Amino acid sequence: MTYRAPVKDMLFNMQELAGLQALTEQIPAFADFGIDTAQAVLEECAKFNEDVVAPLNWEGDKAPSYWKDGEVFTTTGFKQAFKQFAEGGWQGLQHPADFGGQGLPKTIGAACGEMINSANLSFALCPLLTDGAIEALLTAGSDAQKNTFIPKLIDGSWTGTMNLTEPQAGSDLAQVRTRAEPQGDGTYKIFGTKIFITYGEHDMAENIVHLVLARVVGAPEGVKGISLFIVPKFLVNADGSLGARNDAHCVSIEHKMGIKASPTCVLQFGDHGGAIGTLVGEENRGLEYMFIMMNAARFGVGVQGIAVAERAYQKAASFARERIQSRPVDGSLPSAGPILHHPDVRRMLMTMRALTEGCRAMSSVAAAAYDAAHHHADAEICKQSQAFYEFLVPLVKGYSTEMSLEVTDLGVQVHGGMGFIEETGAAQHYRDAKILTIYEGTTAIQANDLVGRKTARDGGAFARSIAAMVEATEAQLLTRDSAAARAVQKRLTAARLAFVDVVNFIAANARSNPNATYAGSVPYLMLAGNLVAGWQLARSLLVAEDKLAAGEDAAFMSAKIATARFYAEHILSRAGGTRDAIVEGADSVTALALDAF
Amino acid sequence: MTYRAPVKDMLFNMQELAGLQALTEQIPAFADFGIDTAQAVLEECAKFNEDVVAPLNWEGDKAPSYWKDGEVFTTTGFKQAFKQFAEGGWQGLQHPADFGGQGLPKTIGAACGEMINSANLSFALCPLLTDGAIEALLTAGSDAQKNTFIPKLIDGSWTGTMNLTEPQAGSDLAQVRTRAEPQGDGTYKIFGTKIFITYGEHDMAENIVHLVLARVVGAPEGVKGISLFIVPKFLVNADGSLGARNDAHCVSIEHKMGIKASPTCVLQFGDHGGAIGTLVGEENRGLEYMFIMMNAARFGVGVQGIAVAERAYQKAASFARERIQSRPVDGSLPSAGPILHHPDVRRMLMTMRALTEGCRAMSSVAAAAYDAAHHHADAEICKQSQAFYEFLVPLVKGYSTEMSLEVTDLGVQVHGGMGFIEETGAAQHYRDAKILTIYEGTTAIQANDLVGRKTARDGGAFARSIAAMVEATEAQLLTRDSAAARAVQKRLTAARLAFVDVVNFIAANARSNPNATYAGSVPYLMLAGNLVAGWQLARSLLVAEDKLAAGEDAAFMSAKIATARFYAEHILSRAGGTRDAIVEGADSVTALALDAF
Fold first, then answer.
1. B350 to chain A: which residues are within 8 Å by CB?
2. How far apart are CA A397 and CA A297, in angstroms?
3. For the Acyl-CoA dehydrogenase/oxidase N-terminal domain, which residue ranges apply (chains A, B) (predicted)?
4. Are residues B211 and B120 part of one domain?
5. pLDDT, tens digit, for every residue of B471-484?
């Protein structure tokens, strides 16, 4: 077994932090999806991913998907695994029953998403993108588009892609040049080049539904002139059967540092007369729709960070239990013992574990907010939940993926020299993880979102309301007399105060000094992510202390307490330095003359 | 040009921080090696590495050295480049003129070492290991051994290797099992397997001089029973000509994440009757001699960290100057401009630059201490310099290599999606750098050395003497009225106080609570490295302010001031959190039950 899904930790988060019970009680559509269903789903999902998907991970690194004559052939085993994935109904987990989905809350779905990504980041990207396409069509597609495409996407016959990037348009989508010419029959001809298209071509499904950003001839410059089109690989006949091959072709795939089994395609649209596309929603509102897709995908990529961190942790812990080197410094063994006995190895593994569990807890709470925002009957709860979710998305994406770099680095480090040898497998996680801080918006793009839309726009009000929630948890910690609770409270308070200082700094400077504000954007994101993850672990500690006192699952609860305390003392303790750098060091970021670089 | 050596910064460090002038005045052997010589050597070295070695870096990644039938064929171009390297006299730079070297101070040699490593880490490893072999033989070899081997190593006819690791003996050399049987004629037969042997086999030299740790039959258990042997690939006749092929064979090379052009060999000694070796020095003192080699190599690996960081910085800065995306947030350009205008890109580049310059300054000062320790006529200065150098070696090795992971990560990040594409080249630095925190002693091994031998052994006295030197620099900063000096002084003082707290913690706990002490060992190393690098940049700022006031090289001096201030505000500011984690968080490192991992 190369991967064992952390089902217990996931269920703990859903039940104790995310309020799954309340969701089932307050939202009729979720009435059947309580903790027992969650457990059954997670166990089934764990089995599939542990047995079928995880063993293909290293295979995909050794023998990546490859391109030949316009076609892409995925790693041996992927096609069969995707068939099983589709047949198991996993693509439809969170999607509406009307279109063949299972309508589960995201609170459960996110945990399943973590599992498939732990098992195999490269494989999981195909469903991740398809999920995004489904969400975009659900929101902005016509009934005909929904009925034509969504059931096929959900049953795994077809898959979806997102086509944003062009050579000159990366983070800056205003530069999109792909052209759409109306044909007068309701269709458009699409011409242009898209790059970095994940699973833009492959052999696992009958058809590929490309969602493409393009500019209708005569549209305004910039992001206000971008429209969204469905451009399927094969045109779809009125009866739903496949028609002609569309003029959308994969001309090459990239040679990447990681996620090698996931084909990253250059797609040429319209080189042979024009690719046929249909408009989604209204003209010039494409970016708005794409953001729906992108927000789903951003959350998903954050979960990828947690997923690869978990896998790296499991691998390193397993190695540390078995590798014998040197006698422990405390003399607790008579001679050389497993390296798990060495304090620095413990420090590395605890760091990996604490970061992973902290981000998992944060993502679980974010998923529950999404569920409430989308399904709760009370409009005020919807609004508050939506604001909370939107604040958390850049943290889940930015912080969880940045932390995955630290975790996968430590994962290699625990292995010593063996970690650098590819066959060991630890290096693959290190290489794979590095894309996560880049795609679906780099960490800087997430941070811009956090600073601009989520913090400065309301003068920091919502951010301060999060600080108030953290403070409430501190108050609960203060009622405890355990050393762990005291230690966590101390660090949580310090981190929260640091966060508030930064929020105030941003609110004060956003207009008057944008350079200073954005100089601290990524550090602010890291501080906010650190705080929210640490806060969730502090909440976990409160629950775990109660359950431990009640004699419930002592090993698990003790571990939760130890991990929460470690997080507070070793990760939350970074917050003060981050605050100082942002608030007192803003000017030095842009002090060096441009021509001195 | 893919790499331009930072000659000016190196010369600044030598002259203004490391005291090259004093070395030339006080040490007769260095009388000719003043700043003018340094400049001439560095410029020549820059030319060779920029023109000949650097272009082979990406080649080596694409077409790594490979093994066939016991032989290793290096990347096309390496053999010719090595010939030029040898003919240029670069291997002998720091070695005695008696054996054909040039006898330059390490203060100059270390800068040359950085250049070749920036140009090509994989290529540079062969000379790096040869340097170590030369140092070990100079210290412990017999006259006959010195005369036979050193001139050939210096002129590049032969190269050297270090054979420590065995499958069961990585960080724990007590487990070495390779066996040496005395033959009664002064030679020994060596039997065993060594792994991870860098350039253990290759085609760039006529002979390879393996220095091998082995256990003489009947020797004590553990590290006190290990001896050091010379086991050449080809035996050497009395006249110095090559004799029979020795029974030391490369049976495979590793498939690694990075430094792919550097062959990492599994060597079998004695599978066909026994490899012939001769003892270096006395029996059972092998580890002591190997430490000479290892200390040289550790310093050298630290310089590798600086080198790869510099290369990654140059690549990222170049990309940031050219890549056009989005309008700057301060509206300083009318439309989309180079990403160098974005504050977060500036933050990333400044972080890369500050870490690199800080570690370079630290290594330059360490190199000068080595020179004084080995050559000064005053015994007290030798002793103090040696203690200072020995304190700095784990920082140069540990901190510079850990920082190189951060820098190469940022290097990829600045490139966005392009960074993940191998052809861009940023990813290679990220992959290459990861070995640096592992080989020649992992960061944890460096930290053990720092905590045990360098700090706890004298109750923290020497560490406190470093703090006192830092305090003297703070006092100088306090005499300045510039905002930069004030900002740097504030952070330097805080970091120095944090460092002293940790030193006191270690001194108090080393015996009574080894787990708590070693739980903080790597964070202590990071804090100490951070402080010493930041201190050197603070000293740089003092010099640069004076020179700027004198109207000397305003662009360079202004950049030095800006970089020093950035380092203080953004990197030194991490020190408080690190201190808290070590001093207040020690117990949580080892609180989780072993069976909970």
1. 588-589, 592
2. 9
3. 38-156
4. no
5. 999 999 999 999 99
- Co-location of A233 and A139 in the same domain: no
Query: What is the distance in angstroms between the Cα of B33 and the nearest Cα belonging to chain A?
Result: 30
State ipTM: 0.98
Interchain CB contact of A400 with B (< 8 Å)? no
pLDDT digits 0-9 by tens, B487-536: 999 999 999 999 999 999 999 999 999 999 999 999 999 999 999 999 99
Count each helix (H run) and each strand (E run) in chain B, helices first. 20, 12
> Pick the catalytic residue: A283, A310, A402, A440?
A440
On whether both A192 and A111 belong to a single domain, the answer is no
The reply to whether A374 touches chain B by the CB within 8 Å rule is no
Q: Does B422 reach chain A within 8 Å, measured CB to CB?
A: yes
Q: Does one domain contain both B71 and B176?
A: no
Whether residues B14 and B144 share a domain: the answer is yes
Contact across the interface for A320 and B427, Cβ inside 8 Å: no
Look up residue B75 and give its DSSP letter. Answer: P
Mutation target for B interface from A410, A570, A572: give the one with most B CBs within 10 A.
Answer: A570
Write the pLDDT tens digit of every residue in B118-163: 999 999 999 999 999 999 999 999 999 999 999 999 999 999 999 9
**Statement to judge: residues A149 and A164 lie in one domain:** no
pLDDT of residue A1: 67
What is the tens place of the pLDDT at every residue in A86-145? 999 999 999 999 999 999 999 999 999 999 999 999 999 999 999 999 999 999 999 999
From residue A340, how far is each of A215, A256, B585 by CA, in Å? 57, 34, 19
Where is the domain boundary, A137, A154, A171?
Answer: A154
- Contact call for B447 and A593, based on CB within 8 A: no
Cβ–Cβ under 8 Å, residues A308 and A433: yes
Q: Specify the DSSP class assigned to residue A397.
A: H
Asked if residue B303 is part of any domain, the answer here is no
Residue B455 structural domain: 442-588
> Using a CB-CB distance cutoff of 8 angstroms, which residues of chain B are in contact with residue A340?
594, 597
Strand partners, B206: none
Helix (H) / strand (E) element for A112: namely helix A106-119
Interatomic CA distance for residues A257 and B430, integer angstroms: 10
Question: Looking at the complex, does the CB of residue A597 fall below 8 Å from at least one CB of chain B?
Answer: yes
**Last residue within a domain, chosen from A255, A284, A313:** A284
CATH code of the domain containing A275: 2.40.110.20
Closest residue by Cα to residue A96 from A87, A81, A109, A84: A109
At position A416, the amino acid (one-letter code) is G
State whether A324 and B168 contact (CB < 8 Å). Answer: yes
In a shared domain, residues B545 and B559: yes
B417/A430 touch (CB, cutoff 8 Å), yes or no: no
Where does the pLDDT of residue B540 fall: very low under 50, low under 70, confident under 90, or very high at 90 and above? very high
